[in-house]
Amino acid sequence: METILIKAFQIFAGLLGLSVLVFVHELGHFLLAKWNNVGVLEFSIGFGKTIWQKKINGTRYALRLIPLGGFVRMVGDDPRMLDPETKEDSERNLLEPVYEPEDKDEEALLNDESKWFLKKGYFAKASIVIAGPLFNVIFAWLLAFSMFFISGAHEPSDEPVVGKLIPGMPAEAAGLKAGDRILAIDGKAVSAFSEMSQIVKNSNEKELDIDLQRGEEKLNVILKPRLEDKEMALLEDRERRLLVGITVAPSEKVVKLSLSETFKTTNRLLYYVTSKTLKSLYLLVRGDISAKNISGPIEIIGQVGKSTSEGLGQTSFLLIFLSLTLAIMNLLPIPVLDGGHLLFFTIEAIKGSPMSLKTQSYANQVGLVLLLALMIFAVGNDIFKIFRVFS
Are 7 and 101 within one domain? Predict the structure, then answer.
């Protein structure tokens, strides 16, 4: 029963974490729309059936049943509204209606063309589109800054103590656990993690006889190092190393950071995460990283939920990573994503006229198909990982 409650809490925490990131993203679009005097019909978190809603000044604020996304519905955001013939056909029911107002407030917003999104200038539209990803970046920065300023930073440790186990690696298979202290390797005493790493690195993939201490108990295990994944070595720009699959345990000593040190540490973290995310995408497109590494919402929710049992710091790091990833993915120049909209607006600004409805329709259909295919593939990866765990 306790295990079920823990799992339920982790799922709830994962959904909550994902919803926070979506809320931040959509809040960016919403606030910049309001700033640029664009009418907003609905600000919704989630998809599907509405479970709560409240209308304020003509805008509906809603929570929907499936908390895996969200949207801001703006007045005049459908290109068909700018085409008189299409609009007339829609009103004569020859096409699906552009948008049916639910009350007089919505009807007034729809009739006020000065508040139409697509009738705004290039910089107004671009700022509204970019605001979503930008707010995710700002959220990640503020979270990282707060974390470092309030909690400080752990001083690097060189104790020969197991921190985390890398899944699928020899240490995990041999039964090592976090907190185990390595005493000796092949009869030679070990006093530092770096010393142990050097022995593993120079082992030539030969089995290592390891003495360790777990609490009051002394144990002996045999580990055979193996080369790290080629993909990880590519990502870190290094030659493949021999590993047993453990990370150093974090030091218990925490160093308080000054304001300037917090600022620098925060910027270094965001630069590292952003650069590695961009490189991962590049290597993925080039075929150097397997598409099996793509995770979907099930895996993301699980990871966020699991991180709650590892402490607030681990959860914060994961949310920082996911928020930056969400920003980067949304800025890709793919139709239906923010980057795709920005690309369309830029092309229109250069050519001096809107793109044809047919071109936009085809592009959006292609973008939607690509996005759905990616989502199905990612969810498939998640399900495969679940079955692999229980097989």
Answer: yes
Q: Which residues pair with 222 in a beta bridge?
A: 209
Supply 46's token pair: 């989630």
Instruction: State if pTM tops 0.85.
Output: no
Tokens of residue 356, six digits = 């044809």
The reply to whether 7 and 94 lie within a common domain is yes
Q: Tell me if 187 is assigned to some domain.
A: yes
User: Are 210 and 342 in a shared domain?
Assistant: no
Tens digit of each residue's pLDDT (9 = 90 or more) over 49-96: 889 989 888 888 999 887 777 889 998 887 776 665 555 544 444 344
Using N-to-C axis directions, what is the helix angle for 312-330 and 2-35, rounded to 10°? 40
Q: Which two tokens stand for residue 388?
A: 């692999």
Largest CA distance in the chain: 87
Q: In terms of residue numbers, what domain contains 373?
A: 2-150+308-390
Taking the CB of residue 215, how many other CB atoms lie within 10 A of it? 9
DSSP class per residue in 157-186: ---SBEEEEPTTSHHHHTT--TT-EEEEET
